[in-house]
TrEMBL record, chain A:
It is found in: Endoplasmic reticulum membrane. The chain crosses the membrane at residues 59-80, 87-109, 165-184, 196-217, 514-537, 549-572, 584-607, 619-639. It is a multi-pass membrane protein. Pathway: Protein modification; protein glycosylation. Keywords: Endoplasmic reticulum, Glycosyltransferase, Membrane, Repeat, Transferase, Transmembrane, Transmembrane helix. This is Protein O-mannosyl-transferase 2. The keyword Protein transport does not apply. GO terms for cellular component: endoplasmic reticulum membrane. Residues 251-307, 321-377, 382-440 form the MIR domain. CDD domains: beta-trefoil_MIR_POMT2 (cd23282). InterPro entries: ArnT-like_N, MIR_dom_sf, MIR_motif, PMT-like, PMT_4TMC. The keyword Coiled coil does not apply. Signal peptide: none annotated.
UniProtKB/TrEMBL annotation, chain B:
It is found in: Endoplasmic reticulum membrane. Keywords: Endoplasmic reticulum, Glycosyltransferase, Membrane, Repeat, Transferase, Transmembrane, Transmembrane helix. Pathway: Protein modification; protein glycosylation. GO terms for molecular function: dolichyl-phosphate-mannose-protein mannosyltransferase activity. It catalyses: a di-trans,poly-cis-dolichyl beta-D-mannosyl phosphate + L-threonyl-[protein] = 3-O-(alpha-D-mannosyl)-L-threonyl-[protein] + a di-trans,poly-cis-dolichyl phosphate + H(+); a di-trans,poly-cis-dolichyl beta-D-mannosyl phosphate + L-seryl-[protein] = 3-O-(alpha-D-mannosyl)-L-seryl-[protein] + a di-trans,poly-cis-dolichyl phosphate + H(+). SUPFAM superfamilies: MIR domain. This is Protein O-mannosyl-transferase 1. GO terms for cellular component: endoplasmic reticulum membrane. The chain crosses the membrane at residues 9-32, 68-88, 100-120, 154-174, 186-203, 208-226, 246-267, 578-600, 612-630, 642-662, 674-694. It is a multi-pass membrane protein. Residues 296-359, 370-427 form the MIR domain. SMART domains: MIR (SM00472).
């Protein structure tokens, strides 16, 4: 399944070819490292799910992920122990995580999620530890936990941007913490300043530094040209070995008759592109499409021509070379289809305020709407135009609009989901409407080796983030049936990891329903308990010291965990992108910890009412044992889900799993 | 007994002349030449069609919001005697004589005018001075964008009116709390809060944000009451229940009643019928009800039926077949079974009729008594005109090669046996022995041999090429991913078949169904369906020329041209008062910074301002900044087309903040007399600039007088404003 993505990216690291992905690089780097150390040579193609690994050594990568996945259990155990100071609560949480089929399945394969969850739980644990060291500020252990929190934050952010939520949780916790310190009048302002500085250092500067370092490693490791080149600017590409811009030698000045590619200067802007397809009926004029395309392609080639003279005399080898100058009026002919870049006062397909850009004319003869004035930013008329370095603006002569890329992805009718190109009548200066010439082929001109301006590391970092955000954000939504956030906590539908047919070895990602439903019920229960506790405290009812301790655990410890759950779950309702079931797992970790704390509190409270100490103990122990047995038994029932099953589908009554298909939506 | 006669009857009337004056000024500014221009202005073209539909009592679904706002507009039309006959098709079209323009625009304008005294009252209730309150009201009065928006048949001014009313009545309620809990006026303001909230939500879903804000504030106040040891538990419980009644139960009931009235008013079928389920359509007068009235309820063996796909997207369609076959080879070289095509056809047609047949018997008529089909029964479906059997087999479907082809079986004698048994599964059954009912039952057809499910591939572009006459594809879905509407069908037209012979049967199929029994949906069922449709129905995202992003609104980088005179340069724009917008932003910034400063200082036990001034500052800011934030920030998460007018509710709250901040600055930061008088002078100067800007822009607010091209150019203060200048 998704191993095809991440395993492949691990291979890229081993082969050092550049690629592009919407997630930050740490997770894939770690996978690559694990593969490298375990002797995987990066040659397996990872083409489609279900391919056999044959002789390739993949166990290292899987083992690494599985190891991180199993670290979750002790982490959760320690966190709950720290929060509730109660061994049974911690044990209950640990049991839940050990016996949850979903967690097992998810950490068995080469995926980013076990790595993400590892760092996430690490951050929670060290945050909680640090909070309990609060009475000994600036001691060695305090520093240790604080900086560990920072490191884990960097790790979580570096695997997926979902790590942002844990940053938010830690941030909120820190703000509360500082607010409390600020109110403590026995603390001088200088001391408070020290506290503030220590946190800024460990929780902001340290993670940032690590995060940047991660990218630095990423870019140093990946120094060969690969499939991700086209997403980045020309300057960036010149850094990659094997890219046609690496150590380029091309004619320096732009001349008439040259064949060029034009790249949009916007971050993740594509090449000016056209192809043999027309705009569909009803969207502007029915002429050939012009788009921006992120990949290198023959259809990106354009020929520069004078607006008034014909093609013939330019292709004549004897005629003298004439350079293009700032302010010239030119025509751009698409090389493959021989149509001119054209614009007119029709609406653009998506950005209705802009004009449509099309390919028009046959074999280079068009009309006056094909004329564009070429201008270099910050130069005077008459100057020559440099390839790569000059930032060029193309103004449409007839309507006065500027050629630009709107950054919006065209819908399916395009077939290729390329980026819209428009002609904007608003004369705003922005990278959207600036282009540079990247390839430049003209046999008549001497090639000169050019060193493109080397981008600084900060620029690279900024650019790669912009590209990630843009590509991730503008990812088109599929209309197919994907899972909805409300499906997740009720374990409505799983994900098929491998195997479809009856004879295949099937693995199905689905949480242990008993555990998940217990978690779900517990959230409601917790809210009830928390609200009633808070009301009781607010009413000023006198409590015994035991009950006070219990209410502290519920409100502070449980509150933190509950907040974590909310932060890792609610934002998905607002996300427009395609969502999968496994996105819920970070929230599920929090939910499991909450279950441990809540049930422990509840049992203690019930036991507290039955005053004779032996009965109380018995009730407490009995309840605890019942819960654990329930969890273990349900795991026994559902374990084939994660360890694989063969045989007929569960919808068939003869299957061993038939009785376990409690919901119609499960497809194992 | 007659003691009351001993005292003279005295009526003391206290009239706040401020309020009266403000109301009058508000009315003048909003009602001035209201029926000018006598042409369709901007979104009137959109709301107008609903008013017309109300006048004609024709059912419609509008995905932009609940029906209360539309009903209010329609009320205006009703009072003006509008007959609904006007073609709302173009912005700028002249109104014909039968359209009572004045009364149609009256209600929004009144609501807009009343916002002025409401603003005054709110600040008074927040315990600010009358002078400050007057300032707030004047700012609202002189806000060009609010004037423009309320002078036409649009919903925002009504929405803002109800929002402000809700805030005001909550404040009144809260201020009564201390002295006279559970008194008459206490109850009155509590319920008025609830009513105003539900009206706001009923006009536009945006009102929900303010409702949530008020609920939060009420919750906070109640939380403080919990901590109050003087109140007994019982009293606390009473307070809680009263609030629940007034702020939750009441609004929900009101909201339901809007829909009730809506559904009572609109009983005729109309253009949006096909969005609704068959059952809903059947409850409307005309349309489907005319056809389905009197059909037998229970589907029996031998029934003649049409099957409608429940999904209804991209269009409604019925299971269909015709004599043409699938081409032997498709364009991409894949082969087909060459059997008779089965499609989903978006029009009513005699080829949509199917006959339910018992596999064990030969007859195609309903026996006497009819044997009903139940959940789990195995049936064959016979196409009425061609008498071929609905069939599916392991051949790739034409457009979705992962699914099975569905055909009407032709025996070519090529070892491809007929697989025409289908199991009927009623999705919305109550028990496992439920009878298959016309219209009401939602049914899945599961193929017995391959357990594939009959499905209309409801994605855009699922229409077959030329050989399939562009009809929609029907497939057998093998990997049934749970429940999806595209796999569910319901019987729409239904009759018991009587004719034995094919010839007679064809005649029977062509004849319309007629008999007499009626089926009615309960109100709650109708409401749930309609509400669900309103929330889930999505118009295609069309970018509008004047649409803008939420970020443009703060700085007013955008405008909307509402109307342009056909010949002269007179035009109406939605453009705010620049000075007010800028000062509102500054006020919000100052408020936030000052609050942070105070908060941090208070944490260190340094008190800059007296305690009650601080409480005032927090409560006023909580409402104004909170109101601004809840009405503005959610737009960053929305994916629909946004316009400048969406910002107006947020702006109203922000404007209320200006005088609050000014009074605070004047009272607490200007210590010396000199500073105070300078501050006063500054305020006067600033106010006159607000007035000046109002006057400057009033030509594009009211649409008259007509300006020349140069004057218009001078008005274009920002390059991004789109002011229309005629080319000479």
């Amino acid at each position: 399944w998704d191993e095809t993505h991440f395993g492949k990216m691990g291979s890229y690291y081993i082969n050092r070819t550049f690629f592009f992905d919407v997630h930050p690089p740490l997770g894939k780097m770690l996978i690559g490292l694990a593969g490298y150390l375990s002797g995987y040579d990066g040659t397996f193609p990872f083409q489609k799910p279900g391919d056999r690994y044959e002789q390739h050594n993949y166990v290292g990568m899987r083992g690494f992920c599985a190891f991180l996945g199993s670290c979750l259990v002790p982490f959760a155990y320690l966190t709950v122990l720290e929060l509730s100071k109660s061994l049974p609560a911690a044990l209950l949480t640990a049991f839940i995580l050990i016996f949850d089929t979903g967690c097992i399945t998810l950490s068995q394969y080469i995926l980013l999620d076990p790595i993400l969850m590892f760092f996430l739980m690490g951050a929670v644990l060290s945050m909680v530890k640090c909070n309990s060291c609060a009475d000994r500020p600036f001691s060695a252990s305090w520093w240790l936990w604080l900086s560990l929190t920072g490191m884990n934050l960097a790790g979580a952010m570096g695997v997926k941007f979902v790590g942002l939520f844990i940053v938010l949780l830690v941030g909120l916790n820190t703000v509360c913490d500082l607010w409390g310190l600020l109110g403590d009048l026995s603390l001088s302002l200088v001391m408070f300043g020290k506290h503030l500085l220590a946190r800024v250092l460990c929780l902001i500067l340290l993670p940032l530094a690590l995060y940047t370092a991660m990218f630095a490693v990423h870019f140093t490791v990946l120094n060969k040209s690969g499939p991700g080149d086209g997403f980045f600017s020309s300057a960036f590409q010149s850094q990659l070995i094997g890219n046609n811009l690496h150590n380029v030698s091309i004619p320096e000045y732009l001349a008439y008759g040259s064949v060029v590619t034009m790249k949009n200067l916007r971050m993740a802007g594509g090449y000016l592109h056209s192809h043999w397809h027309l705009y569909p009926e009803g969207i502007g004029a029915r002429q050939q499409q012009v788009t921006a395309y992120l990949h290198k392609d023959l259809n990106n080639l354009w020929i520069i021509k004078k607006h008034n003279s014909d093609t013939a005399d330019l292709s004549d080898p004897s005629s003298p070379v004439e350079f293009v100058r700032h302010g010239d009026i030119i025509r751009l002919e698409h090389k493959e289809t021989s149509r001119n870049l054209h614009s007119h006062q029709h609406e653009a397909p998506l950005t209705r305020k802009h004009f449509q850009v099309t390919g028009y004319g046959i074999n280079g003869t068009g009309d006056s709407n094909d004329f564009w004035r070429i201008e270099v930013v910050g130069r005077k008329t008459g100057k020559l135009i440099k390839v790569l370095r000059s930032q060029v603006r193309l103004t449409h002569v007839a309507t006065g609009c500027i050629l630009g890329s709107s950054g919006k992805t065209l819908p399916k009718w395009q077939g290729w989901e390329q980026v819209e190109v428009t002609c904007t009548p608003y004369l705003k200066e922005s990278p959207n409407s600036l282009w540079n010439f990247e390839d430049h082929i003209n046999p008549k001109l001497p090639n000169i080796s050019l060193d493109v301006l080397k981008p600084s590391f900060a620029e690279i970092l900024l650019e790669s983030h912009m590209v990630m955000i843009r590509v991730g954000y503008f990812k088109p939504k599929d209309n197919e049936v994907t899972s909805k956030p409300w499906h997740w906590p009720i374990n409505y539908q799983g994900l098929r990891f491998s195997g479809v047919n009856e004879t295949d070895y099937r693995v199905y990602l689905l949480g242990n329903p008993v555990i998940w439903w217990l978690n779900l019920v517990t959230i409601g229960l917790y809210l009830l308990i928390a609200v009633s506790t808070a009301v009781v405290l607010k009413r000023g009812v006198q409590l015994t010291s035991e009950l006070k301790e219990l209410s502290r655990v519920v409100l502070c410890g449980g509150g933190q965990i509950m907040l974590g759950w909310l932060l890792h779950y609610l934002p998905f309702f607002m996300m427009g992108r395609v969502l999968y079931f496994h996105h819920y797992f970070p929230a599920m970790l929090f939910s499991s910890m909450l279950t441990g704390i809540t049930w422990d509190t509840l049992l203690k409270f019930c036991a507290g009412y039955l005053s004779p100490s032996t009965t109380a103990r018995r009730v407490y122990e009995g309840g605890f044992l019942a819960l654990v047995l329930l969890i273990v038994y349900s795991f026994y029932l559902f374990h084939p889900l994660s360890y694989g099953m063969v045989g007929p589908m569960a919808s068939d009554p003869s299957s061993p799993m038939a009785g376990l298909r409690w919901m119609d939506s499960w497809e194992f | 007994m007659l003691g009351f006669l001993k005292k003279p009857l005295v009526v003391t009337v206290e009239i706040n002349m401020n309020l009266v004056a403000l109301t009058v000024m508000g009315l003048i500014s909003r009602l001035w030449r209201l029926s000018y221009p006598r042409a369709v202005v901007f979104d009137e073209v959109y709301y107008g069609q609903f008013v017309s539909l109300y006048m004609k009592r024709i059912f419609f679904v509008d995905d932009s919001g609940p029906p209360f706002g539309h009903m209010l507009l329609a009320l205006g039309g009703y009072l003006g005697g509008f007959d609904g006959n006007f073609l709302w098709n173009r912005i700028g079209a002249e109104y014909s004589m039968n359209v009572p323009v004045w009364s149609l625009r009256l209600l929004p304008a009144l609501a807009g005018a009343l916002c002025v005294p409401l603003a005054y009252q709110i600040l008074v209730e927040l315990q600010f001075s009358h002078c400050t309150a007057l300032g707030a009201a004047l700012l609202i009065l002189l806000e060009n964008s609010l004037i423009t928006q309320s002078r036409f048949m649009l919903l925002e001014s009504i929405l803002i009116f109800f929002i402000l009313l809700a805030v005001l009545s909550y404040l009144k309620f809260y201020n009564l709390q201390r002295h006279s809990s559970f008194s008459g006026s206490w109850w009155f303001w509590l319920f008025l809060t609830g009513v105003a909230c539900s009206c706001a939500v009923g006009v536009k879903y945006m009102g929900l944000f303010t409702y949530i804000l008020l609920l939060t504030i009420a919750g906070l106040h109640f939380w403080h009451m919990i901590g109050d040891q003087n109140l007994s538990n019982v009293a606390l419980l009473c307070h809680f229940l009263a609030r629940g009644l007034g702020l939750v139960v009441m609004p929900v009931a009101m909201y339901l009643s809007f829909f009730y009235v809506h559904l009572i008013l609109l009983y005729r079928s109309g253009p949006h019928d096909q969005i609704m389920t068959s059952a809903f359509q059947a409850s409307l007068e005309g349309g489907l009800a005319r056809i389905t009235q009197g059909q037998p309820l229970e589907v029996a063996y031998g029934s003649q039926i049409t099957l409608r796909n429940v999904l209804g997207k991209p269009m409604q369609c019925w299971l269909h077949s015709h004599t043409n076959t699938y081409p032997i080879r498709y364009e991409n070289g894949r082969g087909s079974s060459h059997q008779q095509q089965v499609t989903c056809y978006p029009f009513k047609d005699v080829n949509n009729w199917w006959i339910v047949k018992d596999p064990g018997m030969q007859q195609l008529v309903v026996s006497n008594p009819p044997r009903p089909v139940r959940h789990g029964h195995i049936v064959q479906l016979v196409h009425g005109i061609t008498t071929r059997y609905l069939n599916t087999h392991d051949v790739a479907a034409p457009l979705s090669p992962h699914s099975q082809e569905v055909s009407c079986y032709i025996d070519y004698n090529i070892s491809m046996p007929a697989q025409n048994l289908w199991r009927v599964e009623i999705v919305n059954r109550e028990s496992d022995t439920d009878v298959w009912k016309t219209i009401l039952s939602e049914v899945r057809f599961v193929h017995v041999n391959t357990s594939a499910v009959l499905k209309a591939s409801g994605f855009l572009g699922a229409s077959l090429p030329e050989w399939g006459y562009r009809q929609l594809e029907v497939v057998g879905e093998k990997l049934s991913k749970g429940y999806h509407q595209s796999m569910v069908w319901n019987v729409e037209e239904h009759r018991y078949g009587k004719s034995q012979e094919q010839k007679e049967r064809e005649v029977e199929l062509h004849s319309p169904t007629q008999m007499d029994i009626s089926k009615n949906l309960s109100f709650m069922a109708k409401f749930t369906e309609l509400q669900w449709k309103i929330l889930t129905l999505k118009n295609e995202d069309t970018e509008h020329k004047y649409s803008s992003s939420a970020l443009d609104w703060i700085t007013m980088d955008t405008n909307i041209a509402y109307w342009l005179h056909p010949t002269s340069g007179a035009q109406i724009h939605l453009l705010g008062n620049v000075v007010t917008w800028a000062s509102a932003n500054i006020a919000a910034l100052v408020y936030t910074c000052l609050s942070l400063w105070y908060l941090i200082r208070r944490r260190r036990k340094i008190y800059d301002i007296p305690e009650d001034a601080w409480r005032l500052w927090v409560s006023a800011g909580g409402i104004c900044i909170g109101g601004w934030a809840v009405n503005y920030l959610p737009f960053f998460l929305m994916e629909k087309t946004l316009f400048l007018y969406h910002y107006l509710p947020a702006l109203t709250f922000q404007v209320l903040l200006i005088p609050i901040v000014l009074q605070h600055l004047g009272n607490h930061l200007c210590r010396s007399l000199l500073l105070k008088s300078m501050f006063g002078a500054l305020i006067v100067a600033w106010f006159s600039s607000v007035y000046l800007v109002y006057c400057t822009f009033s030509p594009v607010t009211y649409g008259e007088p007509s300006l020349s091209a140069t004057e218009l150019k001078d008005l274009r203060w920002k390059d991004s404003w789109n002011i229309l200048i005629r080319k000479q």
